[in-house]
Amino acid sequence: MTDTLSSAQPSADLPTATVHDAEQLESLSPITGDVVGRYPVADAEAVADAIARAREAADWWAALDFGRRKAVLDQWRGVLARRMAQLADVVHRETGKPHADAQLEIGLAVDHLAWAAGHAKKVLGPHRVSAGLLMANQAATVEYLPRGVIGVIGPWNYPVFTPMGSIAYALAAGNAVVFKPSELTPGVGQWLADSLAEVVPDGRPLLQCVHGRGEVGDALCRSGVDKLAFTGSTATGRKVMAACAETLTPVLIEAGGKDAMLVADDADVSAAADAAAWGAFSNAGQTCVGIERVYVHESVADEFVRELTSRTAGLSAAGDVGSAYGPMTLPGQVDVVRRHVTDAVERGGRAVVGGVEAVGEAYVQPTVLVDVPEDSSAVTEETFGPTVVVNRVASMDEAVSRANGTGYGLGGSVFSKAQGMTLARAMRSGMVAVNGVISFAGIPALPFGGVGSSGFGRIHGADGLREFASPKAIARQRVRPLMNLTSFGRTPAMDKNFATVIAALHGRATQFRKR
User: Are 315 and 335 in the same domain?
Assistant: First the structure.
């Protein structure tokens, strides 16, 4: 399988901004086209060697107690925090995003690393559970053991924050990691691996990078890792699952989204517009949980569009320090954005800011589309660019119905003073921010992931730690049972007593009655 397990998101032609030959991968700046770095391309043998080294490191790492693992990860966290500006510069050079935005994602990743290391023992360590009345003579214990070696295929849009959602939690759970960063951001991945190596005793390879394009991801999927965590497009996620299925390797898939914001008639319209602008245009719209659709109650729709237009008018994309966001990191995605905007306008939608002319060769200026038909590509497909569709609705029930009218189900946003929680629960998505945008991603204790075409499994939080561990159940007999039911010496009297106990415990369960 070649050029199929790239972490590019969403699916598009492979980028021309990366040169791949038999030996080296060149990372190029999307702003200047200059070479940022060169990295050796791993073949299947190199991937296998990395897995073998990781297995040795994993055995050592898993044998340490939670406290000693936390001490190493805390040292790494200190390195990341102290050198944040250095790493931010690598992110800027490889993605084109402003330094401040790069710093923001790094800071959030550091905070998640701290949470994972600090909570691993509580979440994964041995704990007692009730054995129940029937098995009262038993002591029941559950603990979560490291899986071994975790493979991670990361994206380019948030090359620190997103893969660290898997890497940090996998390491905290006691695993070693082999990481294939995106072919667009190999330098970021290598920087992370090198920085951890500085604090790991005896140079044990807890985190290794394997560089390349789709064929390297393919090799990693087939390498026999104990779990594979992937972030990228839905289409590529399906290919990852198919490759991993050959070895029954479990997978965690964080795929694309078409996230919606709901704005109710009692919303703080100004705050909603401000959040929509950030959710839609930050990082050039290259955010899987970014806002691509807004459904606003008709009673406040005109005010919302005015507020959003006002906030968007002052934003621009460029490569200088003062720009709101940078270029499109994936060149082929420009064509997707142009197609969506063109289709929306040709089908009767209006561009109140930007439009087809806002789509350049490398930079896409912010575009606000209104009154776009629900069956247009700008509404049904992931755009992954700095555009947003704003459509008015007659009720919030209609807003929920439209928001849920897609196969995606990653994140979402709701603005309402009284209905926030109700509307949030009604949205078919893995995460929702109420009176905010993307806030769930910054809370380490909250699980992050989607449903439907947006994938399955979770990073972050206790669920994220458990994703990279295997539950171990132990039942220990404390005293001999009154009735030994798991013996061929069981008597008819015991069977009768057992039936009597079951009837007494459960026979009078409340019956459902129709009203």
Answer: yes
Q: How confident is the model at residue 4 (pLDDT cuts 50, 70, 90)?
A: very low
Q: How far is CA 163 from CA 160, 328, 338, 370, in A?
A: 6, 20, 29, 34
CA distance 168 to 210: 18
Which residue in this structure is represented by tokens 């939690």?
169
Is 245 in the same domain as 297? Answer: no
> Is 476 part of any domain?
no
End-to-end C-alpha distance for the chain, whole angstroms: 59
Find the angle CA(205)-CA(93)-CA(13) to the nearest 5 degrees.
85
Q: Which two tokens stand for residue 472?
A: 């171990």
254 is catalytic: yes
Interatomic CA distance for residues 130 and 217, integer angstroms? 43
Residues 270, 413: one domain? Answer: yes
The secondary structure of residue 146, as a DSSP letter, is E
Identify the domain containing residue 441 by its residue range: 260-445
Query: Of all residues in the chain, what percent carry a pLDDT higher than 70?
Result: 95
CA dihedral 80, 86, 87, 88 (to 10 degrees): 120
Catalytic residue among 94, 105, 183, 254: 254
- The overall pTM is greater than 0.90: yes
